[in-house]
Amino acid sequence: MTMVTSDSKGSVLIIDDEKVILDLTSIVLVNRGYTVFTASDAMMGMKELEEHHPQLVLLDYMMPVMDGLTALKEIRQRFPDTYVIMFTGKGNEEIAVELMKAGASDYILKPFNNQDLVERIESVLRIRKVELRNRELMEERERLLSEIAEWNRQLEERVMEKSEALQRAQAEIVQSEKLASLGYLSAGMAHEIRNPLNSINLFAQLLKSGCDDHEKLDFIDKILKEVERVDEIMRKLLDASKRPRFQLSEVRLDRVIDATLEVFRPQTELYSINVVKDFRHIPPSFQADQSEIEQIFTNLFLNAIHEMQQGGTLTVLLDHDDQAVTLRISDTGKGMPPENVQKIFDPFFTTKSSGSGLGLAVVLRIVKTYHGKIAVAKSDETGTTFVIELPLLPS
C-alpha cells in the first residue's frame, strides 16, 4: 500500500507483520506530510525498496520468514542511502544495541508514542541529509583532487616535453654553430694548408725522379702518402662543414642501401655479421645527390661493423608514411657510454684508435642538407640504434 501527500516531507517504508502497527503508523506519518509505503514482511519490503527507494525504513525486529536483523543487514548492503529505524519490544535493549551495531540509525520500543516516533524520524532524516551531503562533498573533493592530480600530471608531462624539445633545439643550434665555425675554419685551413701541401708534393715528386737510393725512395714515398693523408683529412673536413659540388638525380633509398651493403659484404662475411633488411614500405624516389646519400650509409655501416668484429647482427629498417621516411640502423655491439652519445656528431670526436672523427659529422651535415634529423635512439650493452627521419617531399 502507498500513501502519498501532495507536498511530501520525505518517503518512509514501514515493514511490520502487525496490520494495526502498519495502519496506525501510516496515518500518523501521512498526517505529518510524509509519503508512506507499507509491507507486511521483509520479502515484500525488499520489493518496495527496489521500486521506490524510500529515504527511511521503519523495520520490525520480530517478523516471520526473514527476521529484522537479517533484513537490516541486507538493506544496508543493497540500499546504503536508505536509513533504518528498528521497532523492538520492551526488554530488548541488548538486541537494540546489536541492531545499532549492524547499521540501524535508531530504535523505538513498542508500544511507542506518536510524537516520539515523528521526532525520531525527523532526527534520523536530518542526520541522513547531512551525512549524504557530506558524502557528496567528499566524493566531489576526491573528484576535484583527482582532476587536480591529473592536471598536474599533464602539466608536468607538457613541461617535460617542452623542456626536452628546448634541449633538443638548443643542441641542434649548438651543433649548427659548431658546423658553421668548422666551415669558416676549414675554408681558411684549406687555402692556407693546401698551397704548401702542393709544394711539398711537387718537391717530393722532383726528388723522387732524380733519386736512385732505394732507402731514400722509400722515405719519399712515405712523404707522398702522408701528403695524401693530410689532403684526405682536409677533404673530409670540408665535406663535414659545407656541401661540396653536387648533382641531383632520382634516388631510391632501398637501392642505395642494397648497393652499399653489397660493398661491405666481404667485411660482414669475414666477421660473421648477419645482415637483416626490414623494408616495410619502400618510399618513392626523391631528388638528391646519390654520392651524399651513399655517404650516410657508408659511415653508419662502417661504425656498426667496427663494433661487431666478433659477430653480430646489422639491421636496416626502412619505412615511410605520408610525411617522412624513417631509417633505423641497428647493431648488436657493446654500445656507447652516455657521455659519448652526446659527442658523437662533434667533428674530430672518435673512440677508434685510427680515424678522423669526421664520419658522423659528415652524416649530420648531409641529413641536415635534406632537412632531416638523425639521433641515437638507444645505445647500451645490447647495441646501438641510429634513427634518421627525412621529410617526404614530392620528387
Automatic annotation (TrEMBL):
Superkingdom classification of source: Bacteria
Coiled-coil parts of chain: 127-179
Database matches in SMART domains: HATPase_c, HisKA, REC
Residue stretches making up the Response regulatory domain: 11-125
Catalytic function, reaction form: ATP + protein L-histidine = ADP + protein N-phospho-L-histidine
Enzyme class of the recorded protein, top EC level: transferase
Keywords: Coiled coil, Phosphoprotein
Signal peptide coordinates: none
SUPFAM superfamilies in the record: ATPase domain of HSP90 chaperone/DNA topoisomerase II/histidine kinase (SSF55874), CheY-like (SSF52172), Homodimeric domain of signal transducing histidine kinase (SSF47384)
Domain Histidine kinase per the UniProt entry, residue ranges: 188-394
In-chain residues carrying the UniProt-annotated modification 4-aspartylphosphate: D60
Pfam entry (one): HATPase_c
Keyword set includes Coiled coil: yes
EC number: 2.7.13.3
PROSITE patterns: HIS_KIN, RESPONSE_REGULATORY
Record protein name field: histidine kinase
Protein's organism: Geobacter benzoatilyticus
